[in-house]
Amino acid sequence: MALAQVVQDVLNGDLPKAPSNASEFRDLQLRLIESANSEDGSLDDGIDCKACRNRGYFVTWDDDNQCRANRECECMVRRRNIRRLRLSGMEDLVRRYTFANWKVAEPWQRVAKQMAEDYAREKRGWFLAAGNSGTGKTHLCTAICAALINEGYDTRYVLWRDFSTNAKAAVGDAEEYRRLLDPLKTAKVVYIDDLFKVRKGDRPTDADVKLAFELLNARYNDTSKLTLISTEWTIEGLLDIDEALGSRIYERAKRHHLNFSGRANWRLRE
Known about the structure:
CATH class of the largest domain: Alpha Beta
Order of helices and strands: HHEEHHHEHEHHEHEHHE
Mean pLDDT: 84
Strand content: 5-15%
CATH topology of the largest domain: Rossmann fold
Oligomer: single chain
């Protein structure tokens, strides 16, 4: 008998026979638990869990002899990871960019992968991948984020050009501006992809610099936050754009700083 039917019978006044001894009471407990755990749930997330029947939990008896949904199914770890990926905006990226499919054809690629894996393991400070387009900056930063998401870290992804356009348009709307920036200031992990991406020969606008400083300074002031940045600007270029901003990035990322300047664009290889 399903749990819903048991409840309905009770509401209709058709009360089950009260157990007369400990053995009958234990038998009633087991039947109620079995009934509750046979109910189908409504969770989706692309996972069909046979163990919990997509409820995400199991019903057991607690120490106070109360029947409660107090044991989480192992599938919930995977479900939360999938939700974090969707919230972070990285769902498609993590399928394409992994540590496993990073090409190690040259020594510098081996060094770059090792530094990225070290950062994902140590989880300390910032990670900066700077230099030429097509050298794998986004690939390694995404692989790091995927590893952190799988460990349960609140991770957000920002494509700078899109984010800056939306944030600058919202400057006159305080509520919308906070809605865009506050989650990035407080998230445990933020990945800023293509910081200060501009047309060749151009420089970031003052509004871009101001926006970047507000976001990164908030994260700089909380050393527990992890920040990943990919950019075509070197540290020297970032310092030239704004010394206060560039020096903060350098200080936090100096232990995990990849400089891809001068490396070939692998997208153009034959």
